[in-house]
Amino acid sequence: MPKDSSIKSVLIIGSGPIIIGQACEFDYSGSQAARSLREEGIRVILINSNPATIMTDPMMADRVYLLPLTVESIEQILEENQIDAVLPTMGGQTALNLCKEADELGVWEKYNVRLIGVDIKAINKAEDRELFRQFMIELGIQVAPARIANSYLEGKEFAQEIGFPLVIRPSFTLGGTGGGFVHSKDELDEALNRGLQASPIHEVLVEKAVLGWKEFELELLRDDNDNVVIICTVENLDPMGVHTGDSITVAPAMTLSDTAYQDMRNKAMMMMRNLGNFAGGCNVQFALNPENEELIAIEINPRVSRSSALASKATGYPIAKVAAKLAIGYTLDELSNQITGTTSACFEPALDYVIVKVPRWNFDKFKGADETLGLQMKSVGEVMAIGRTFPEAIQKACQSLENDAVGLGYYGKSLMKSEQLLERLKTPKWDRIFRIKDALMEGVSVKTIQQLTNIDRWFLYQINDIVNLEKQLQEHDLESVPATLLREAKQMGFSDKQLCYLFGNCEEEDVYEKRKSLNIVRTYKMVDTCSAEFEAKTPYFYSTFDTQNESIPSDRKKVIVLGSGPNRIGQGIEFDYCCTHGLQAIQECGYDAIMVNCNPETVSTDFDMANKLYFEPVFWEHLWEIIELEKPEGVIVQLGGQTALKLAKRLQEKGIRIIGTSFDNMDIAEDRGRFSDLLKDLGIPYPNYGTAYTTDEALDVAKEVGYPVLVRPSYVLGGQRMRIVINEEELEKAVISLLKHLPGNKILIDHFLDRCQEAEIDAIFDGEEFHVMGVMEHIEPAGIHSGDSNAVLPAFNLTPLEVTTMEYYAEKIARALDIRGLINIQFAVKGGKVYVIEANPRASRTTPFIAKAYQVPYLNIATKVMLGANKLKDFTMEKKLDGFAIKEPVFSFNKFPGVNKELGPEMKSTGEAIRFIRDLRDPYFRQLYKEKSMYLSK
Fold this sequence. Notes:
- The protein is α+β, with helices and mostly antiparallel strands.
- It has 7 domains: 9-116, Rossmann fold; 145-208, 2-Layer Sandwich (Dna Ligase, domain 1); 214-349, D-amino Acid Aminotransferase, Chain A, domain 1, CATH 3.30.470; 359-520, Carbamoyl Phosphate Synthetase, Chain A, domain 4 (Orthogonal Bundle); 541-659, Rossmann fold, CATH 3.40.50; 688-751, ATP-grasp fold, A domain (Dna Ligase, domain 1, 2-Layer Sandwich); 756-931, D-amino Acid Aminotransferase, Chain A, domain 1, CATH 3.30.470.20.
- Strands 14-13-10-11-12-15-16 form a 7-stranded antiparallel beta sheet, sandwiched between helices. It has a 7-stranded antiparallel beta sheet with strand order 31-30-27-28-29-32-33, sandwiched between helices.
- The longest helix has 17 residues, at 457-473.
- The radius of gyration is 27 Å and the shape is globular.
- The mean pLDDT is 90.
- One of its GO terms (biological process) is pyrimidine nucleotide biosynthetic process.
- Keywords: Amino-acid biosynthesis, Arginine biosynthesis, ATP-binding, Ligase, Magnesium, Manganese, Metal-binding, Nucleotide-binding, Pyrimidine biosynthesis, Repeat.
- Composed of two chains; the small (or glutamine) chain promotes the hydrolysis of glutamine to ammonia, which is used by the large (or ammonia) chain to synthesize carbamoyl phosphate. Tetramer of heterodimers (alpha,beta)4.
- Belongs to the CarB family.
């Protein structure tokens, strides 16, 4: 049927700030949905409180509300706009819960607004554990034995009935929050209480745990005519017992028999068709008994999810975009597949490659946290890799993780003994895939590892193939390795750096030159959704070592944008926002924009954002071969955070133009010692400092600069391993820890300015004019990382002289560093004197916040300045802020009970929200100021 012509305007509800379990995949889905609806001439109104997302940019919707996600905010929007329908399926669990609350209060009925895509009954049926269980029983689909409990006593009673092991699943929560496994009576009390408290309706499902079974997910779409298509089948490498967000996943499913697959398809379709009023994207999870292929349903999510973003990038099928059109009445057969341009949206994707997703954790930020993986999701991000085989894809994924891995293995690091490895493998932890490989290298059998981990033998044999080839490679050096063996190694995903460790006595560059001379070079294949059965129109590529190259460079001038890799604390969604704007600005300047990134959750890796997308690790070897093929005018590193910046030196050495600020000037700002020398030359005050490479040197420096001191390594992100210490004993511990984790890194020791005010400036410089984007004042006192501080824009407690001094110093630094584009500078103010703490010659976490607060497209402007296409005088930058904007950090400490929640120089927040206030008398602000700024003198 054609679209519903009665729908003229739609409200899309976002997911709010980034937390563990709900990340930028909902920015991606919400952005796709908004674009999809506007294509149909529908007016889109959007609510979200996250300033770091492209979703909340003015260009994405007809009207954007940066408001807290509450019923009060919804009512305000409904009063100010004529809204026909609300789409709640693009904002994760947050949006579904908010829609349910608004429905219970009669808000939708009061304003004559209807829900599209899904109705309340369908939400309840999927999210309420008992209703879901009854729903499955009615359909004749098996579920694990379970009972619903609304009290602690009920839970204990049911636990005795069902028997251990158990799983506690709270209703209406996200990312497994509050859930957990119970192996004995001793663990039951705490698990029940935690689950009941986590559920907004004080309800848990006490369920028999099917630990060790295999887990599968299906991504489906359904329309109003009951047509259902399976977009992707995803297999979890980890068995049941590890949250799917923390599991390594593979697509297409590798170990599923055809009969089990057909059974799963049929049951998933039956579930969708009987869910109720539902049209759009859906995720269904199953557990399969590996002994007899018995199948049980785990859950159904009547919304797009983290897996939807992964499935979209894995297949090239724009799930959220199609789901939005289905929600307004279209049927699948009426829509076309945008990748091919010729086939219908009914055409189920077929993959002739392997996708591997590996989660990224930040346990280093949560000292003392339980690193065991279980029902509660703990990863902060993920990477996706594409290869022709599983070994190639898993090795590429490991190279993408930004944790110093150069492939699957711990090269150059201490290895565990086989007894330690066997003990380690019993418990799922973040490094289990690496430890499996270590165990196989030690000669442990596949059978033993399978018994310890319950991971399917097929995956273990694939990893064993990597091990066997690695042992063959170790018998050679670079000179003697046969060309056939070298080609096989590259086809299996071994990086040049990995091969250096195996051959010894050679450099990465030597390996590259050797294989290039043998014509062992990357070729690029297109992601086309249909295994090349139809010609694809969208330039979306991955690399492999094959004979045919499908990526043909154009003769147009082109610019490469480097992405930021996986989300992690200190480097998150804000850099995707920056990259997306960068791509648009490059295209507006007449260049072809080429995107390189490996994060499946981002808008910047959408198939139609850049002129060309390379879904590849942000890793030197991969980047260099793309540059060799495409021959760009230059590379932009300022928009991708520390990940991109780290590759600037190699680009400089290769003679590749870095668009914007030069490498040497960026290095001065990044190298804490060189930067302090620059400030000294410029006559700008800074805390006394010294540099050290050993503990003895550090003790001498600290004595000279005076305690307390701030100890930190150069070239770090998010305050990694920064410490404030007050005596020699603490200093020695801090330096030993730094040398252990970052050997050879220069250590900077600053005198710490306690009891002072912190502030920061974001600015743009074009070589002539300097423009201050915003001056932000931190509410928290010095010593708390800027990413963890509440920041107020504009500054309210600094004197005009202090603000002017900061702006004067900022311009002086920008001119000295010959900045082209963005710079962020952080200050400390004590006794009326302004000190410079650090400068970041790149986009920062605050860049999108300022752009949203003032409603100025700063990233677009900065990119054009970097390209030299425009000067600042070409733009009108009128700021529109009536009052103040506050950046509120958001934490996910609830995922790590018992960890130290005290804030310090190392960043711990996972995301942020924006809040607007009219004036400083606002009760919210007064309370915040009273709680957070107790050390500031007034």
